[in-house]
Prior knowledge:
The structure holds 2 protein chains of 2 kinds.
Chain A: E1 2-11, E2 14-24, E3 29-33, H1 40-48, E4 53-62, E5 65-66, H2 72-77, E6 80-83, H3 95-109, H4 117-130, H5 135-138, H6 148-162, E7 166-170, H7 178-190, E8 197-202, H8 206-210, E9 215-220, E10 223-228, H9 231-239, H10 242-248
Parallel strand pairs in A: 3-8, 3-9, 6-7, 7-8
Antiparallel strand pairs in A: 1-2, 1-4, 4-5, 9-10
Helix pairs in contact in A: 3-6, 6-7
Chain B: H1 24-28, E1 33-34, E2 52-57, H2 64-70, E3 74-82, E4 89-99, E5 104-114, E6 117-127, E7 132-139, E8 146-154, E9 160-167, E10 172-181, E11 187-196, E12 201-210, E13 216-225, E14 230-239, E15 247-256, E16 262-271, E17 277-285, H3 289-297, H4 302-319, H5 324-338
Parallel strand pairs in B: 1-4, 2-3, 3-5, 4-6, 5-7, 6-8, 7-9, 8-10, 9-11, 10-12, 11-13, 12-14, 13-15, 14-16, 15-17
Helix pairs in contact in B: 3-4, 4-5
Amino acid sequence: MLNIENLTVSVDDKTILKGLTLDVPTGEVHAIMGPNGAGKSTLGYTLAGRSNYEVTAGSATLNGEDLLDKDVHERAAAGLYLSFQYPLEIPGVPALTFIRTALNAQRKLRGEDEMSAPEFLKTTREVAKSLKIDMDMLKRPLNVGFSGGEKKRMEVLQMALLKPKFLILDETDSGLDIDALKVVSEGVNALRAPDRGMLVITHYQRLLDHITPDRIHILVDGRIVHSGGPELAHELEANGYDQYLGEAA
Amino acid sequence: MAFDLFDPITWPTRRDEEWKYSDLARHLRITPRELEVSTDIAAPALTLEGFHVHNVFGADYSGLEAAVAASNGKLWLRHWARGRLDCVAGFQNKGRIDLKAGEHLTLFETYEGKGNYAVHSELELTLAEGARLERVVVMDEPETATSVRQSTIDTAPNAQYVQTVVSTGAAFQRFESHVAHAGHGAEVRMDGAYLLKNKTHFDYTTRLDHQHINGVTTQTIKGLVKDQAQVVFQGRILVQKGADGTDARMRHQALILNDGARVRAKPELEIYADDVQCAHGNTIGNLDENALFFCMSRGMDEATARGLLMQAFIVPVIEAIDDDHLRAAVLEFVEAKAGGFYGV
Lengths: 249, 344
């Protein structure tokens, strides 16, 4: 599914990712853990195609399709979804308008028919209900004045409606209290599917108690230094990243 | 403020501080010809129900008082100027509306026209105690027009004056409001939104004079400029000695979409009272790249994302319009105009 090979990335002439190699097979959920500054968010932004993230070496493909030579929106249409650590507020654009514009833009790019307004509303209503999102909230400008939990629920709503093939969750747990974390995790778990992959980027093991990964990779100084099963999260929580910092050097 | 459109000696120039960035004399050069007003009017650019329509040809405000009386609180003043091709047709006149104590009026002003014309119109508005005037202005004039619209607004305690000006510019266009703020619970809101392209010029000048205690003022002005368009925003809030408890806030935000476009902003707070809350903020910049990336990461191509964000930038000003029908009509107008900005 997602295959990253020797990925090297610079931001403002500073090399952040230094030959990162990672494979996430179809249907699996992998987690990336690592200390601050390791390059976790850089990985997400690079895969999504943010402009000042310069790939100097390596490759990244999704289902065999080269991601790196596509524009940002083409990657989205190819099925990649990056959930932001801090979803942006878009004043003046109702959440419903935003999501429908995005959905139909993707469909158009894939050569599919646009989704009609009634069909979109019907689908949205069902998904919103499962995420405990009030329809009135969707008529308000996207994320403006929303709490951290509400913003993350909006992210999950968008994932559920846009139906991406591959999800990257960047620090989805930040800014969430226990209850919100539960709702968001349930929403994400509901999206686990045999034909969908996920990459969960996180600092803490807390999120991984709710979204159990198939594999955990430890990212230190721009490289994966260790990989293991879900039990690795607890080991890290107990011992910290210190033992891996030496390996990166 | 007074000048005579038909007497070049009285025309303001850049040497007048108030007209420094909008030099009328330099723009006009030749005296417009005072011609008979044509009542040949085109269909309006937007549709609106529930308003009593009164046409103002050139700057002819005759019959205004009767129109207000017949309006049932919702009046649409359709300003229309038909210019010429062989010369510049000139129109100049004054109008006046007085709101009695407690009276409410929603005044929708549209400014439209065709051909070469120069108009200088003045409106005098007075609000007695507790009166409320919501004034929504749409300036949709041709790129050949010269248009100077001045107004004075006199308020009284507990009155509410709300002004929203939407402009797409003209060859030379200035909308100027002078408000005497009565304080004592009176509230003033003077907002604006502009979408300028090509070689247009729009000047939004607001003057607020807080003369008494406990007056409230808010201003939000937002705009988009591209091509060689020029915008001038001059906002002055004067808080006179003794006008304690004044709460005045002014915000101006502009997006410049390419190198040739220009915005000159001159916010001024002049405060002579001690116990006041005043603030002004002014930002001029480009579209937020983070927001653009966010939209695109959800599948929107760059043009769609830019269009959405530009519209989103302007729309909050329009959404503050109180009258439901009017808000919907102006929103539709702005969305249609914002369309021309997508391709940047």
